[in-house]
């Protein structure tokens, strides 16, 4: 009788492998729903497209759609880039000033987004700026991003995320980001978004010289 093989310590545990596979499948389903939604919006307009049509095109049930996106607006507004940005901020050296760390994190995080995803972001931004219901949700999303960045700055600086210093810094970051995003949309993505954001954050880091 042969002795049992020793487990390979470098191999992932079975439960981790199952979880990873499940997460990949969920990410694929989420991406498919969003891609089909954007395709339908481009073909027949946002208002004329129903959740049932999106679900049918993505080959999922409406109930599955709602597990991934609570509303039709969310299929345009929601993305996975906030966690990517947060990870990039946390990866910056601890001795960097908060604004310098944010600038480096934006450059790193947005530089990782492949071109096909960048094109989708551009499409979503155009929709968000042209559909009234989406403009309202975009404001809500910006407020959530402000809170997220405030938490990251507070963690790095040891300050209260609600303090005027932290909120002012984060507000300034968002204030210079919005014109950069608007310029990117107006130029139909012909200018590099990471370059636009880096240039804008560079002006802020330099004290906004004019």
Instruction: Kindly report the name of the CATH homologous superfamily of the largest domain.
Output: Tetracycline Repressor, domain 2
**Average of pLDDT:** 88
- For the record, the count of structural domains works out to 2
The total of helices stands at 10
**N-to-C series of helices and strands:** HHHHHHHHHH
Extract low-pLDDT stretches.
Answer: 1-12
Percentage beta strand: under 5%
Number of strands: 0
Shape: globular
The first-level CATH class of the largest domain is given as: Mainly Alpha
Largest sheet: none
Topology of this structure?
Blueprint: H1 14-44, H2 51-58, H3 62-68, H4 74-77, H5 81-90, H6 98-111, H7 115-130, H8 132-157, H9 164-186, H10 193-205
Helix pairs in contact: 1-2, 5-6, 5-8, 6-10, 7-8, 8-9, 9-10
Organism: Microbispora corallina
Keywords: DNA-binding, Transcription, Transcription regulation
InterPro entries: Homeodomain-like_sf, HTH-type_TetR-like_transc_reg, HTH_TetR, MftR_C
């Amino acid at each position: 009788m042969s002795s049992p093989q020793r487990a390979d310590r470098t191999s992932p545990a079975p439960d981790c492998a199952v979880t990873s596979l499940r997460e990949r499948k969920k990410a694929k389903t989420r991406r498919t729903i969003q891609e089909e939604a954007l395709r339908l919006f481009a073909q027949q307009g946002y208002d004329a497209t129903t959740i049932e049509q999106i679900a049918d095109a993505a080959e999922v049930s409406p109930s599955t759609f709602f597990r991934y996106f609570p509303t039709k607006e969310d299929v345009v507004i929601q993305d996975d880039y906030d966690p990517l940005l947060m990870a990039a901020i946390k990866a910056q050296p601890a001795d960097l000033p908060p604004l310098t760390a944010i600038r480096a994190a934006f450059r790193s995080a947005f530089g990782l987004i492949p071109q096909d995803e960048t094109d989708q972001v551009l499409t979503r931004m155009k929709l968000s700026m042209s559909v009234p219901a989406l403009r309202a949700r975009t404001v809500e999303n910006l407020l959530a991003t402000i809170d997220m960045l405030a938490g990251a700055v507070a963690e790095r600086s040891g300050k209260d995320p609600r303090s005027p210093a932290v909120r002012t810094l984060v507000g300034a970051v968002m204030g210079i980001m919005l014109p950069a995003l608007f310029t990117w949309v107006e130029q139909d993505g012909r200018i590099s978004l990471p370059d636009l954001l880096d240039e804008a954050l560079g002006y802020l880091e330099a004290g906004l010289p004019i």
